[in-house]
Design brief:
By secondary structure, the protein is an alpha+beta fold. The protein has helices at residues 8-11, 77-86, 102-108, 162-171, 193-199, 228-246, and strands spanning 3-7, 19-25, 35-37, 43-45, 52-55, 62-65, 68-72, 111-112, 115-116, 121-126, 129-132, 138-139, 142-143, 149-155, 206-207, 210-212, 220-222, 255-257. The protein starts with a strand and ends with a strand. Bound molecules: flavin-adenine dinucleotide.
Length: 261
C-alpha cells in the first residue's frame, strides 16, 4: 500500500496538526482501521490522530455522460465549477466558495443556504457499491455516510449562471481571511452560532494564537502558530457558556480528529 507524508500544519485550512504518513487509496482498496480525509478544510487534527487515508489522484475526475455528471470524490469544488461553466451546467456555482473535495462535501452535505450538495445528487459509489440518494439519510451538514465515497453521479440541468456565481461571491465577502476550518459550530435550529458566541462574550476571544474571529464569531481562526489544544479550549469554553446562558448544546461542525475521540 502506498502512502503520502502530509504536514497538517500546512495542508489543513486551519494550519494545525502533525506530520504523518497517510495511506493512499488506489484501485478501491480501503485499508482497515483508517479514517478518510479529503482536503482537510473542515477538520481539526490532534498531534495523535488515528491512522488516516486519502484518495489517490485516480478519483480526481469529472465527465458528462448523456444527462448525468460523474465526479470523482477527490475532485476539488473549483474544478467542478469550471467544468460546469464550460459545459453550461446549472446548480454547482456555489461550490466555487466551498473549499474541499467532493468526498468531504458529500459526507458533510456541504452547502450555502438552501444550496446543498445533496440537492442534485443521484447516487454515490462507496466500498460497498452504489447507493441511491434515497438510501442515504441527510440534513443540515450531516449525512449517514460512514464509508469511503469513491465517486458520485448528479442530475444535469442546462444553464450555468454567472449571476448566481457573483451572488455566492458576495455572500463570502464578510468572511475572515485568517486560516480556519470554516464555521466552527452548526447553527442551532432557529438561531445562529455566531450570534450566541458573541452574546456570551467570546467574539474576538483568544487562547494562545487561536481566536473566535472579530469578523465573524463562528470562525475559529489561527492567527499564527495556534495549537490543537488552544482550539479545543475555545470550543469547550463556547459550548459551556452557551449551555449555561441559553441552555443550547452547540454542536461542532468542524470534525475533530484524535485517536481518543
Ligand atoms: C474558509 C472556509 C469556508 C467554508 N465555508 C463553508 C460553507 O459555507 N458551507 C459548508 O458546508 N462548508 C464550508 N466549509 C467547510 C468545507 O468547505 C466543507 O466541509 C468541505 O466539504 C470539506 O471538504 P474536504 O475535502 O476538505 O473534507 P475534509 O475536511 O478533509 O473532511 C471532512 C469530513 O468528510 C469526510 N470525508 C472526506 N472525504 C471523504 C470521502 N471520500 N468519503 C467519505 N468521507 C469523506 C472526512 O472523514 C471528514 O469527516 C468552509 C471551510 C473553510 C476553510
Amino acid at each position: 500500500m502506498n502512502s503520502k507524508t502530509i504536514d497538517f500544519s500546512k495542508f489543513s485550512s486551519i494550519r494545525i496538526g502533525p506530520v504523518v504518513d497517510v495511506a493512499l487509496i488506489e484501485n478501491d482498496y480501503v485499508p482497515e482501521g483508517h479514517l478518510i480525509i479529503g482536503a482537510a478544510n473542515n477538520v481539526l487534527v490532534s498531534l495523535t490522530p488515528p491512522p488516516l487515508m486519502i484518495l489517490s489522484k485516480e478519483y480526481d475526475f469529472i465527465r458528462l455522460e448523456e444527462d448525468s455528471l460523474h465526479i470523482g470524490a477527490a475532485t476539488p469544488g473549483g474544478r467542478v465549477v469550471s467544468f460546469c461553466k464550460k459545459n453550461d451546467i446549472a446548480h454547482f456555482e456555489y461550490l466555487s466558495k466551498l473549499p474541499g473535495t467532493l468526498g468531504g462535501m458529500l459526507k458533510m452535505n456541504a452547502g450555502l443556504k438552501e444550496y446543498e450538495i445533496f440537492n442534485h445528487l443521484i447516487a454515490i459509489r462507496t466500498q460497498s457499491g452504489w447507493k441511491q440518494k434515497s438510501e442515504i439519510e441527510f440534513g443540515y451538514r450531516k449525512t449517514s455516510i460512514n464509508e469511503v465515497v469513491f465517486e458520485a453521479v448528479f442530475e444535469v440541468e442546462k444553464g450555468y449562471s454567472p449571476e448566481r456565481y457573483e451572488m455566492f461571491n458576495q455572500m463570502r465577502s464578510n468572511q475572515p481571511h485568517d486560516p480556519s476550518a470554516g464555521s466552527c459550530f452548526k447553527n442551532p435550529s432557529g438561531d445562529y452560532a455566531g450570534r450566541l458566541i458573541e452574546a456570551v462574550g467570546l467574539k474576538g476571544k483568544h487562547c494562545g494564537a487561536m481566536a473566535f474571529s472579530e469578523v465573524h464569531a463562528n470562525f475559529l481562526v489561527n492567527t499564527g502558530g495556534g495549537t490543537y489544544q488552544d482550539a479545543l479550549t475555545l470550543i469547550h469554553e463556547a459550548q459551556t457558556r452557551v449551555k449555561r446562558d441559553f441552555n443550547i448544546d452547540l454542536q461542532c461542525e468542524v470534525v475533530i480528529i484524535d485517536q481518543n475521540i
